[in-house]
Amino acid sequence: MNNQNLDNKFKFKKKFGQNFIFNDKIIDKIISFANIDENTLVVEVGTGYGKLTTSIASKAKTVLTYEIDIQLKETLSSNFKNYNNILLIIDDFLKRDLANDIKD
């Protein structure tokens, strides 16, 4: 998965502050600082294109990830189809009940 896989029709939305991470070195650094292991639940706000999400999922027990941009739903569902430990919620994180989402 790289930025070439991002649909050319996709328009970044300033209102969501969209900045997607594609650089593997940055992703590796984030993962190493996070001390994620096979027992970790990670809550990610702002899934973006999902490159960081899939890297986290390869280390964590579960990734609960929120994305507000409905236009990314199909792309993310496709990108995550081989991961049974990613729970994607397309909604505004600030309007969610995190405790309830974790419980579910």
Poorly predicted regions: none
Which H/E pattern describes the elements? Answer: HEHEHEH
Shape by Cα distribution: globular
Query: What's the mean pLDDT score?
Result: 87
Count up the helices.
Answer: 4
Q: Rg from C-alpha positions?
A: 13 Å
User: What topology, given as strand order, has the largest sheet?
Assistant: 1-2-3
Largest sheet: 3 strands, parallel
The assigned structural class equals alpha/beta
Q: Find the count of extended strands (DSSP E, 2+ residues).
A: 3
| End-to-end distance | 29 Å
Explain how this protein is built.
It is a single chain. A three-stranded parallel sheet has the order 1-2-3, covered by helices on one side. The radius of gyration is 13 Å and the shape is globular. It has helices at residues 24-34, 51-57, 73-79, 98-103; strands spanning 41-45, 62-67, 86-90. The chain has 104 residues and is an alpha/beta fold. Helix 2 (51-57) links the parallel strand 1 (41-45) and strand 2.
What order do the helices and strands come in, and which of them pair?
Blueprint: H1 24-34, E1 41-45, H2 51-57, E2 62-67, H3 73-79, E3 86-90, H4 98-103
Care to give the gist of this entry?
Helices cover 30% and strands 15% of the residues.
Descriptors:
globular, 3-stranded parallel β-sheet, alpha/beta
